[in-house]
Amino acid sequence: MITKDTVLTRRADLIVQLDGANTVRVHHGRVVSEFGRHALALLDAFWRPRTVAEALRLLGPRLVGGRALDEVVSTLGQLVSAGVLAEEHPVGFTDLMFPVGGYGMAYPNIRMLDDPLRKRLFVRAVKEVVRPGDVVLDLGTGSGILAVAAAQAGARRVYAVEPAQSAGLAQAVADRNGVADRITFLRDWSTSVELPEKADVLTTDIVGNDALDMAIWETVQDARERLLAPGARLVPESITASARLVRMPPEHVAAHRVVPAHVEEWNARYGMDFTPLLEHDRDRVAGFYEPPTLAAQWPRLSPATPLYEVDLHRDARVFTGTAEVVAERAGVVNGVTVHFEARLSPGTVLSTDPVGGCDKSHWFTAGWVFPQEVEVVPGTAVTLSYHYTGDGRATVELADRTAPQEVGA
Question: Helix H segments across 229-274?
Fold first, then answer.
């Protein structure tokens, strides 16, 4: 029986639709349920575990008159009956399909654990950095692997934060490995969570294909300001992005930019003129992610050249800069690939360089297709401009090129 002291929380894997009549349609698991107009407010109130009384107090300003309270209580009962709100949710991966299932799906967890480098190097770094008696904050714990590694390294307490439904599986993994008594699992977003004590170490693997595209810098800064003790150690510590001039095959360029061949084929196929699509796509720099095994096959016309470095101990900021990349081979450049090295700990560095990568790598290679091609010879200096606009958004563009100096000039 649900009482005012019952603690409820919403399912993590929901798709919510709202129609013109304020009917709320919720997809959960393989079921679709409809609720009244107060359902959205209740779902928001129970985004973290709360008692029924606490949730009703939060909704107080909108409950004008006895009828509104009756409607809210009725909708609350319906949400509980449907399993959208519950005291405990089943442990397991979500049934929602990609991409809405996110990291609650089995797929990304399998890919990360199956990567022969990613988690193995992270675990090595955690065991190097964590000291007996430490308090550790693990952001985006996923399968719980880094939280378990921290506990195995002697951490007194680990706070493992994960908003996805798979958080229950991480707890089961910790229990199976005999360290659940020292790990507190929090189904929450790190920017909202509060801890009863400051952490000595932060661990996180929210590192994207383009290093910063999952907002790791901003997330770590928030944790440093609110949740970490002064001088806290970080895993990872810093990230260096590098760029390489490449010649991408025409079919790859055509997958990301409108090219004349597209227009010719579409015009003939449909009996219409699609030239405006080409005209309006001439100046766009097209970003992409591709498997490293594919990017490694493209002709490389320069060595990997550092583009920028981010120290996660420093505050996040918007930045713009340039980097000069010198060609070492003759050819035609039509884009760059970007990879990174993450210093996970003083003795552990992880690289996503596609050269030497493998088909089990969970990270894809980031890259940019230029609007125009550039012919280079050995010694040609190509200037790239890069701009990080914050919250994971970045661009890399062709700024200029300089012909090599003649001998004796």
Answer: 250-256, 260-270
Q: Which of 192, 236, 232, 188 is nearest to 216 (CA)?
A: 236
CA 269 to centroid of chain Cα atoms: 39
First vs last C-alpha separation in the chain: 88
Residue 402: partners with Cβ closer than 8 Å, 6 or more residues away: 380, 381, 382, 383
The C-alpha atoms of residue 394 and residue 297 are separated, in whole angstroms, by 25
At CA 225, angle to CA 219 and CA 226, rounded to 5? 90
Strand bridging mode 228-235 / 348-351: unpaired
Collapsing DSSP to helix, strand or coil, 207 comes out as: coil
Contacts of 303 (CB under 8 A, 6+ apart): 244, 326, 328
pTM (2 decimals)? 0.82
Q: Which of 209, 173, 213 is nearest to 392 (CA)?
A: 213
Give me the tens of pLDDT residue by residue for the chain, a chain 409 residues long.
Answer: 889 999 998 887 788 988 877 889 998 877 889 998 899 999 999 988 899 999 999 998 878 777 888 889 999 999 999 989 988 766 777 776 665 567 777 888 888 889 889 999 999 999 999 999 999 999 999 999 999 999 999 999 999 998 877 778 899 999 999 999 999 999 888 888 999 999 999 999 999 899 899 999 999 999 999 999 999 999 999 999 999 999 999 999 999 999 999 999 999 999 999 999 999 998 889 999 999 999 999 999 999 999 999 999 999 999 999 999 999 999 999 999 999 999 999 999 999 999 987 778 888 999 999 998 999 999 999 999 999 999 899 999 998 767 665 433 3
- Here the tokens at position 112 are 């990360």
φ, ψ for residue 120, nearest 5 deg: -60, -45
What DSSP string runs through 74-143?
Answer: HHHHHHHHTTSEESS---S---PPTTTTGGGSHHHHHHHHH-SSHHHHHHHHHHHH--TT-EEEEES-TT
- C-alpha 104/C-alpha 366 separation (Å) is 24
